[in-house]
Amino acid sequence: MRKDVFSRVMLLAGMLIFTLPCWSDLQNGLVGYWPMDEGNGDKVKDVSGNGHDGTAKNTKWVDGKYGKALEFNGVDSIVDIPYSQEMTPKEGATIAAWVFPTDTTRSCIFGQFEGYGMALFTGLKLKSVIWGDDWVSDVTIPVEQWSHVAMTWDVKSGNRRMFLNGKLVDEKGGAKPIPNVQNHFGIGLWVGWPAAWGDDMFKGIIDEVRFWNRVLSEGEIGQATQPAAVEPSGKLPLIWGKVKSR
Hints:
With 246 residues, the chain is α+β, with helices and mostly antiparallel strands. Helix content is 17%, strand content 39%.
């Protein structure tokens, strides 16, 4: 029994040695992290510690890529996160999420209306929006499968990039500063999107949305696809619990 406990302690120590550097790096610049693991109610907590909690409207709690997630109906579902200057970065940012689309129509994954965002164009082509400049890639994601998507923009270099499952899949120039657009951040729909402009509501499941106010490298985005890559320190006991339960 003692030998078994010792083995588990050593396993935990090894996990912490190799994963804490990743957590530390990915905590740098982390503005918002919505794992969507509540499983009930309409509150979507930001566990980054920055207090950017959201309100889920007309969504359904379901099993996600990791833990729980929210299902969006493609009609009027959204997670509404109030405006914050932190989420209107001037020099660049990285935003990422796990998505499971259930149809191939165009839709918003996340973004700030009139500011920035990531979407899916018709046929599930990846789309990046930076201050009115829509960029549609030829890269597509599959329907009814999980995909990790991420976008970055860097005003200093001018680079805009899109990532799929932790890998850089498309890039272009033209990144520019975003003005202080004081709109909310939306998941599943642009908050304030005029209905007359077309239906851009996401249909499917979204999980593990993360927002950094810096440009992550391809390697860091690859790390962020993992379930524990950006876990706040308060969740470390969960790892110990998993080790003990084995």
